[in-house]
Structures are given as structure tokens and as C-alpha cells.
Amino acid sequence: MSQHNIARPSRRRLMQAGAAALALGAPAFVRKANAQSQFDWKRFAGQKIDVVLAKSPRADIYQRYEKEFSELTGIEVSSEQIPEQQQRQKVMIEFTSGSPSFDVVNLALHVQKRIAAKGKWMEDLRPYLSDASITAPDYDFADFGKAGLDYATQSDGRLDTIPIFVDYWMIYYNKELFAQKGLEYPKSLDELKTAAKTLTEPSKGIYGFVSRGLKNANIPVWTSWLLGEGLETIDASGKLLTHTPEAIWAAEYYRDLNKNYAPPGTIGFNWNECQTSFMQGRAAMWLDGIGFTAPVEDPKVSRVVGKVGYGVTPPGPKAHHSATFADGLGISAASKKKQAAWLYIQWATNKVNQLRFLKEGGGAPARNSVYADRETVTASKFGPQWFDCILESAKIGRPGLPVIIPVQEFRDVFGVALTNTLTGADPATELRKATEAFRPVLAASEKA
Amino acid sequence: MSSELTRLELRAEAGVVANIPQQSVEAPPTRPASPYDFSRKYWVFAVPAVVAILAVIVFPWLFTLYMSTQDWKIGGGSAFIGWSNYAILFQDERFLEAVGRTFWFTALAVILPVILGVAAAVVFHREFPLRGILRTVFTMPMMATPVAVALVWTMMFHPQLGVLNYLLSLVGIPPQAWVYDPSTVIPTLVMIEVWQWTPLVMLIVLGGLASLPREPYESAIIDGANAWHLFRHITLPLVWPYVMIAVMLRTIDALKVFDNIFVITQGGPGTASETMNIFLYLQAFQFYKLGYASALVVVFFIIIVLLSLLLLYARQRSKWNA
Q1: What is the C-alpha to C-alpha distance for residues A75 and A337, in angstroms, rounded to an integer?
Q2: Which element (helix H / strand E) includes A173?
């Protein structure tokens, strides 16, 4: 058919060819009237923006494909990756100084959300989204998942950042060890404890459950259980719920699992020690963020490749939630190149880059559509259960840390209290002491 | 003439002058009455040093003192509160515990490497085959990058999968929790210090041993002294000033230790390895309480100055001619 067309061109064909020739002769015209959209990506060509990222596989992806953005827009990008802790310090100090050196910044929303709102750090992105002249028509903001958007949205409705990545806390479990004991994945926290007990065999060096015991790092373990009671650590009015019967129950649950069914020494474990135990087949279940999957399925470092199940955190006595964490990209309110910065954010959070997170091990992206990309799902070494776990967790996601300014002090004070329960201290007493110690810190932070 | 010639020859021989004009020899420049000249024209030369010292030592110090009197939090503004930070500090249980822990850690991290370092120096002072190679191997831990070393140790300490527990299992010792237990964390961290810094003590003492005179030994042997007598009554007293230098350096280093502890335990489990440095880091860079952290720095500085004075006094006493 096509051969016939080439041999004897029809009138329509000739006109098309003529149009194509015209188009070739006017590349500038084509670029503007791009088949995809009428959107002008080049309008800020020649500007230069500074981007501060936190060290992560996601930042690697951004830097690897940065040229793509510069070619699309003609905007020069100067980006840097700084290790998480130091990046937060730098961002904090620069925003406080009043003249931050960057235009685009990565915020860890589970730590910096409240301080960003109180310090008026960021530009509200809602007007940008509703302005068709600077937001690409195919950006598809509605595609972003609820958990990520909830995190990015402040209590007064401002949208400080666009979420790029959401980490859901879930349970990695060793299917082989479960099968040996004839166990199914637990459907409640009670079942989880029973399963942990059954799977624990110290004589073989195998333990039923492992999670973080190190102070500070251990808070999300406790809040994961507390969310099962339908509570966060602080309610909407800012009242501490850390010494309620529910919080004490969660601390007792934390203590029981970490003390009775976890490997010796978990009191000092951070995620990496837990991961090592799990990857070597020495722990049957591991509660942590789903973002830590990549090494677990890497045959070079893991002995459990292909045997790993990805389970949604089981429901607690009163509710079913997954403790959630998120990062977002936003524009510094003091930036002088806000529109160019907005183009960068659109590019960084577009579907192509979000899909790259999935393909290149960058954790769970914030857009929903990428999980529907069957090609990626089937090609992924993580398997369909991993994707299901994310989608299910996304529906029940709730913040794993309180949205307050002194998050680090919260983690420290309550982290120490939880650690103390592992060496015999009474959970109720420890939580009371910690709550009393923390209350004035919280009050002062909102006053200043 | 002949006397002049001799004088010239003498000066040339001493390397002072080569081609010196005749008249300057005859009329040597008159020396000022004082070796120092305080006239204003020289002040300009002191300015760079003074500026540098003011900028990098005096100003930060005064500013730290000033900050320590403020309720100053990054992102929260500041207000004058006088001595309150100090008052809070001395009621802060975690701070007081951290001080005690710092002294405990420092004592162990000074005494053990010094004893072992002196012993190693005595061993390496003798001639034996492969001494050179072994001495190099022995000093290698000192050259390793602290953070990398700390990460490797962390892996070795893993209670389930670390190589240390595997080695213990070979000789029938049950697995230990190492840094993953509040009661063993400090001794374990000290163990790393010992491994890393014993070689430094050894090098310092070895230098001292090499400079010792032989005569006292010869006469002592004639008098019938045995090896222990020689060590106890000759080697040790003579090498003591060098040991004191090692003690001083170790004390300063041990008080300063941050990297190993932070990388391996972050002050945990709980607060079981939280030294003053870790506590200070938390206050300043995690909680952003600059005023409080400044007060802590001032107190820490006073402690270090007092300790240094004590050590300087001990070192002065240990000198041969003292």
C-alpha cells in the first residue's frame, strides 16, 4: 500500500510533502508549534538556575539527565548533591540568612514541612499551576498521588513543593522461612507478633522480626504501630498524644517485638544493620521503608533474592495505615528566577523522570500513572507484589513523623525513651518523662 | 695588617662573610642598646599576624561568649538571657552524664594505648629479623581514614553476621553485642582507639629510646641489674618525658574524638556513648540551639584548659633536669 503511494503520489500526499518541506524550511516555526503542545519551553533560554539536592539515587538521575532539560529550555542548571543531614543544615542556615543561594531546593517534607511554612521559605506553586502560559499543558498535575500531595500541601492550603518521591513503611518478609513454618503473611498486628514468635529460632541464628532500635531512627517503627490505633503523635491542634494509652500500647508492642523476637543488639540497629540481617536470611520480617529494596534483590549482596515478599503494614486494633515519608522540589521564595525554576520542577517531576525512578532504582515516585506502566512492572526485578504493595500503601499513607518544627528533638527525646524500654525501663514511665521534656520545646518552637 | 687578615679569615671561615668590603670590617655597625626596636616604623610588619589572630581566634571567642548569653536558635531569633544557658547546662542530666562519659572514655583511650605503645616501643627497639616490615605494618592503622575505618568496624561488629563474633565462635566464646549494648559500647569504642593510636605512642617513645645514652645500662649491668631492673630504673625514667608527650597528645585527641563515635553509634544505644562532642553536635547542628551549644563550648574549653595545665605541670615535673 505504501509502495503504491510512493510510486503514484495522491494529491493529499503531495500537499503533505509540501507542508513538510515548508516545515523543514522554518524550524523555528516547528519548534514553537510543536505537535505535543503550544507551550514555549524556550522562553527563559539563557538564564541560569541553582539547584540544591539531597544525596540520593533520585538526585543522580536528575544530574544524569540534566542536559536534556538544558536542551529543551536553553536554561543552564548548576546543581549540587549534598548528603541529607548536611543538606538540611545548609538549607536551614541559608533560608534563615534571608538570601539563599539556590532557586530550586529539595525538601524532606517529613522533617522540614513545618519550618518551611513558618519561615515562609517557599513560593506557593498553586498560581504557577493554574497559569497556562508557564505550565505545560501535558504536565498532568492530577496524576500525583494523594499521600505525596498531602505531604506537600500546608495546613493553609499552600503548595510549597511538588512531591517527587514517597517512602512507604511496609514489611519485607522471607517467603521461604514463612513456608517452612506453614505461615501466611499476617493480617493483623496480633498475628504479626504470633508469626514473629513462631519464626524465632535463636539456635539457628534466625529471628522472627527486625526493626530499628537506634534512638532517633527508631521513631517510625513506633509510629507505625501507633497508626494502627488510628493516632499520630500529635493531633491537629498541636497537642502531644505521646502519653496516651494508645502510645503506651504501641511502645509496649515495639518493646516486645524488638526484645523478644529480634536479633541480639537491635538496640543499636539502624536500617543498614536490619537490612544486613534480612538480606542474609537471619530475620524473617523487616519493617522499614520500601525505598530500601534495591540491594535486597541484588544477588551480589543478598542471599534472599527471589524469596522476598512485600507486605503492606498489617492493620492495628483500630485502624490501618502505612507510615509515610516524602521529598518534594520547590522554589525558594527569594529566588529571582522563579519561572525558570518552575520549568525545571516541571521537567524534574514529569512522567518520564518519575518512570526513571522506577526503572533505575530511585524509590517510589509520587505520580500514580507510572505504576500503571505494565512494561516497567513486568521488566522490574522487584516483581508485581512490590508494585501492589506501593499502591495499597499509598491508599492508607499517613505521616510517620509529626509535622512540627523541632522534629529532630522529637526524634531524639522519644527515640531515647523507646531505646530505654529495650533495656528494661517501663514504657509508660519513659513516655511520660519524654512527653514532659518535649512539651516546652514544642511550645517554644511555635511561639518564636 | 696581619691582625686584620686573621680577623677576615676567621669570619670567612665561619661562613659569615665572603667578599666583605674593607671599610665595613674596620668599622663594624654599631649595635642598638636593646635587641628589640619598638619604634613605630616596624609596627606595620606585625599587622597581618595581629589581624589574623583577631579574626580567627579572638573574635570567634568573644562571639561565642556573647552567643552563650543569648537564647539563640537558628530560625527563631535571639534574646539576652544572661547566665541562664549555663544554669540550664549544669542541671541537664544528659550533659552531666556526657561529661562523665567523656572522662571515662578519655581515661581508657589514653592509658591503654600508652601502656601498649610503650611495650611495643621496647619490643621494636630491639634488633630482630623483619623488624622494619613489622614496624611498618604496626603503624598502618594510624594512617587509615577515620570514617572509612569506622564503617569497616561497624560491619565487623554486627552481632549476627560480623566477623568478630565469627572469630570468637572459633575459640568457643559466645557472640558479643559489641557496640550494640549499652554496657559494652564504650569499651568497644576504646578498642578502636587503641588499635588506631597505639602506633603513635610507640613512634614517640621509640624516638625517645633511640636517644638514650648507653653508659647507664653498661654500669648497671656491671652492678648486676637484670632486664626488669634496667627497664624499671633506667629506661622508664629516662624515656618518661617522651611518654608524657604521648599522654598529652593522646588526651587532646581522645577528648576530641567525634568521627568514630558518630559514624558507628551516633551516641547510642540510647545515650550510652554520647560524649560531650556528640552532645554538642546534637544541640548545635540538629536542634540548632546555638546559644546553648555556645555555653557548652565555653564549659568544654575550660575543662580542656584545666586538663592541659595539669598535663603541662606533669610534663615539667617529668623532665630530667627538673
Answers
A1: 11
A2: strand A162-174
HEC string of B199-251 equals HHHHHHHHHHHHCCCCHHHHHHHHCCCCHHHHHHHHHHHHHHHHHHHHHHHHH
What is the mean predicted confidence (pLDDT) over B82-91? 92
Annotated domain spans of chain A: 41-166+324-397, 168-322+402-447
Compute the half-sphere exposure of residue A364: CA atoms within 13 Å on the CB side of its CA.
29
The structure's pTM equals 0.83
Collect all residues of chain A within an 8 Å Cβ-Cβ radius of residue B177. 264-265, 268
A281-297 residue pLDDT tens:
999 999 999 988 888 99
Cβ contacts of B286 on chain A, cutoff 8 Å: 408-409, 412
Using one digit for the tens of pLDDT, what is the confidence trace for B222-281?
Answer: 999 998 999 999 999 999 999 999 999 999 899 989 999 999 999 989 899 999 999 999
Please tell me the distance from the alpha carbon of residue A380 to that of residue A355, in angstroms, as a whole number.
12
Which phi and psi angles does A298 have, rounded to 5°?
Answer: -105, 110
Which fold is adopted by the domain A168-322+402-447? D-Maltodextrin-Binding Protein; domain 2 (3.40.190)
Query: Nearest-CA residue of chain B relative to A205?
Result: B160
What is the architecture of the domain spanning B91-318? Orthogonal Bundle (1.10)
- Comparing A41-166+324-397 with A168-322+402-447, is the CATH topology the same? yes
Question: Which CATH code is given to the segment(s) A41-166+324-397?
Answer: 3.40.190.10
In this complex, the residue of B76, B185, B267 whose CB is nearest that of residue A448 is B76
Q: Are A241 and A186 in contact (CB under 8 A)?
A: no
Taking CB atoms and an 8 Å limit, are B160 and A277 in contact across chains?
yes
CB contact under 8 A, B270 and A216: no
Distance from CA of A412 to the nearest CA of B (A): 9
What does the alpha-carbon distance between residue B273 and residue A424 come to, in Å, rounded to a whole number? 18
Peptide bond into B269 cis (omega under 30): yes
Question: Could you give the angle at which helices A427-447 and A245-260 cross, rounded to 10 degrees?
Answer: 120
